[in-house]
Amino acid sequence: MTRKKLMAANWKMHKTPDQAREFVASFLPLISGHHRDEIVLCPSFISIPATIEALQGSRVDTGAQDVCWEQHGAFTGEVSPAMLRAAGCTHVIIGHSERRQFFGETDDSVNRKLRAVLPTGLKPIVCVGEVLEEREAGVTEDVLRRQCSLAFREISAGGAAPIVVAYEPVWAIGTGKTATPELAGEAHRLIRHQAAQAFGEDVANRMRILYGGSVKPGNAALLMSHQDIDGALVGGASLEPKSFAAIVNY
Ligand code: PEP
């Protein structure tokens, strides 16, 4: 089964609209020969329109970093899946570890957001991954099983096709410590097994599972050459056009 790789930039709370435009102006020429993978930039909400406008006519998509589980209503400060669609987003990150760690995101809210996003046609990138204490305690598999089974709850096999999962061991995010391809591959196989249990083998075999955690130009090729790694979610190294282009062109 060949799965088209997805290379996603998570800009976190960086880049004003002007800085997003500047990035795109430098980045697009660096990837002009690239036709292999799906590429998406995920700016902050405020920089989404500028990013979409700057990317017009290119093959690069725009995604959001979070979303509400409702389409409209009295939810001050939130942005709905329908609003992201209307703005021109194609992807959305759900359940990033920073949202879990700092903003009270739970397995239950991840599931609610995923169920709200799927009918809109946005492609969700659902983040899962263990913290260092969990890896050291030998419970990584239990954590991934729990995160996946709760995220996938009450989603039909028919509706699950757009789901992308990002395996992001939290100890590797922003730390410079990267999981080996073998270690990531093991986690990806477990995640695919959970997807098969929830949605059947066919959907699971087509599902893209990205790796995230200190992906850099120097380690992208090795990680991407592993048969179970279907792309990357990149934080720090996606902030500079040259380094994200080097990762995309691994
Ligand atoms: C992330 O935030 O999703 C991430 C993987 O960050 P970094 O690449 O900086 O580790």
Question: How does this model look, in words?
Answer:
- This protein has 250 residues and is α/β, with parallel strands linked by helices.
- The protein has a single domain, classed as Aldolase class I (TIM Barrel, Alpha-Beta Barrel), CATH 3.20.20.
- Helix content is 42%, strand content 15%.
- The chain has an eight-stranded parallel β-barrel with strand order 1-2-3-4-5-6-7-8, surrounded by six helices.
- β7, α10 and β8 form a beta-alpha-beta unit.
- α1 packs across α11 and α7 packs parallel to α8.
- The longest helix has 19 residues.
- The protein is globular.
- The structure holds phosphoenolpyruvate.
- The site of phosphoenolpyruvate (PEP) has 13 residues, from β8.
- Phosphoenolpyruvate (PEP) binds next to β8.
List keywords for this structure.
TIM Barrel, binds phosphoenolpyruvate, 250 residues, alpha/beta, single chain
Quick overview of this protein structure:
The chain has helices at residues 17-30, 48-55, 81-87, 97-102, 107-117, 132-136, 140-151, 181-199, 201-206, 217-224, 241-248; strands spanning 6-10, 38-42, 60-64, 91-94, 123-128, 164-167, 208-212, 231-234. It is α/β, with parallel strands linked by helices and 250 residues long.
Low-confidence stretches: none
The domain tally reads 1
Per DSSP, what share of the residues sits in E-state strands of 2 or more residues? 15-25%
Main beta-sheet annotation: 8 strands, parallel, barrel
* Shape-level CATH architecture: Alpha-Beta Barrel
Under CATH, the topology can be stated as TIM Barrel
Name the CATH superfamily assignment: Aldolase class I
H-E string: EHEHEHEHHEHHEHHEHEH
In the CATH scheme, the class would be Alpha Beta
Structural class: alpha/beta
* Ends apart, CA distance between termini: 21 Å
The largest sheet has its strands arranged as 1-2-3-4-5-6-7-8
Assign an overall shape.
Answer: globular
The number of helical segments is 11
Number of strands: 8
Helix content: 40-55%
> Which ions and ligands are bound to the chains?
phosphoenolpyruvate
Radius of gyration, rounded? 17 Å
Q: Could you tell me the mean pLDDT?
A: 97
